[in-house]
Specification:
- The protein is an all-alpha fold.
- Helices cover 71% and strands 3% of the residues.
- The protein is built from 13 helices and 2 strands, in the order ααββααααααααααα.
- A two-stranded antiparallel sheet has the order 1-2.
- Strand 1 and strand 2 form a beta hairpin.
- Helix 3 packs across helix 6, helix 4 runs parallel beside helix 8 and helix 8 crosses helix 9.
Length: 279
């Protein structure tokens, strides 16, 4: 594993564009911390986001993992380009000539995918701890560790999404077309959602259950949007409607199973395509 990872990391380190994208990604992740010092002025009233409770434990685990996941496309470009460059510069064929098997080649890419996901997860975890202990009104250990499963969900979500990008990179070869295909897939899932609502199901819950089996939607379900959970929003909603939002924001065990299935499927199909392809 270490040998395979070293091979991939050397390739990435020698690629200037990949280095820039990776550094940009982690710099942008750091910008979440800047939300703590941003002042907003609404109807003549100044307020700072950090003072509104978005960095309170345990809500911060939900908020930060959701916001960080929005930036995953920067590393997606790196992963797709990493695969496309293998074809462009002939390093794939050279690696195979040097004795690397196709199985080992895909394994090296998968280990890199996991390393990216793990690195991002550790970064978000540490940043959340720092912000939480700095701004949270609740610092009791039992409260701090509540909802830590969002960190696990974030890692699984990123791992699966990056495996999906790896599969697209193997399938299409060209980085620009591969990135475009990722967006096309996302659009297609949303079109299918619209068709299900229009032609098949009238019940929104049924539609959500069906869509939960699709790759990108299932990954999104691991870290659901946190904004309607925000305490201030719920207070306003209660005053206006007399009822609170009863949406479930956690992650069910079967949602993990679905995403892990897609992760394994994309890695396996990447290997099958490469195995059958004439290089």
């Amino acid at each position: 594993m270490k040998r395979l990872l070293n091979i991939e990391l050397q390739k990435l380190w020698k690629n200037r564009a990949s280095k820039i994208l990776i550094f940009t990604y982690f710099i942008l992740l750091s910008f979440i911390a800047l939300l703590a010092s941003v002042n907003f002025k609404i109807i003549g009233i100044d307020f700072r986001l950090a003072d509104q409770g978005i960095f309170n434990f345990p809500y911060i685990w939900h908020f930060n993992t959701y916001m960080a996941a929005l930036l995953k496309f920067f590393l997606a470009v790196v992963i797709v380009s990493m695969m496309a460059n293998e074809y462009t510069y002939g390093t794939l064929k050279q690696n195979l000539i040097d004795g690397l098997s196709k199985k080992e080649f895909i394994a090296s890419k998968f280990y890199t995918v996991l390393l990216f996901a793990l690195g991002s997860t550790i970064f978000v975890f540490i940043m959340s701890l720092i912000l939480g202990y700095t701004f949270s009104s609740y610092n009791e250990f039992s409260i701090v560790i509540t909802d830590l499963d969002y960190i696990v969900a974030y890692f699984v979500k990123l791992s699966a999404f990056f495996a999906f990008c790896l599969f697209i990179g193997v399938l299409i070869k060209r980085s620009a077309f591969a990135i475009g295909f990722v967006f096309v897939w996302w659009i297609a899932e949303n079109i299918i959602r619209g068709l299900l609502h229009w032609k098949v199901f009238s019940n929104k819950t049924t539609i959500e259950i069906v869509m939960g089996f699709f790759p990108l939607e299932s990954m999104n379900n691991l870290v659901k949007e946190p904004f309607t959970r925000f305490q201030a929003y719920k207070a306003i909603e209660t005053q206006m409607s007399g009822t609170q939002n009863l949406k479930y924001y956690g992650t069910h065990w079967y949602e993990y199973v679905i995403v892990l299935f897609w992760l394994a499927f994309f890695v396996y199909m990447s290997y099958r395509i490469l195995k059958k392809r004439d290089l």
